[in-house]
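Narrative of accomplishments. A recurring question from our advisory board has been how the design workflow behaves on a single, concrete structure rather than in aggregate. To address it, we present the structure tokens for one chain from the evaluation set, followed by the sequence designed for it. No filtering or post-editing was applied between the two.
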């Protein structure tokens, strides 16, 4: 088994798929970025469909099931009104990002506290 030069740059000896370590890392990075971009593009129609959901004009009907709301209606943070069955964000596929807001709120309310270091004697 004779060592052969890299098939891409012809500067170093290649061992992984005929590529040197530098070219192999670059090709792996290209493959990973192409894969992530394709995943993002595949999920883009789903995101666009959620963004199309415009704010509701009248609070007298549920935005999900179109059920007439009486005196009891629930307004979500996504600025729409829902019945008792669809009041939870999981039930009406809420577009508001509750997780990020919660993390931001926790980080603002609970700052990192560090004790002062003791002086050595």
């Amino acid at each position: 088994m004779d060592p052969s030069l890299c098939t891409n740059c012809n500067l170093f000896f290649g061992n992984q798929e005929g590529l040197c370590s530098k070219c192999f890392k670059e090709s792996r990075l290209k493959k990973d970025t192409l894969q992530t971009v394709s995943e993002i593009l595949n999920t883009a129609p789903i995101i666009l469909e959620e963004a199309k959901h415009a704010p509701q004009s009248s609070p007298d009907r549920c935005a999900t099931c179109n059920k007439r709301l009486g005196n009891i209606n629930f307004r979500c943070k996504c600025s729409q009104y829902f019945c008792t069955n669809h009041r939870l964000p999981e039930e009406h596929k809420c577009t508001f990002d509750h997780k990020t807001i919660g993390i931001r709120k926790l980080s603002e309310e609970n700052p990192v506290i560090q004790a002062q270091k003791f002086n050595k004697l």
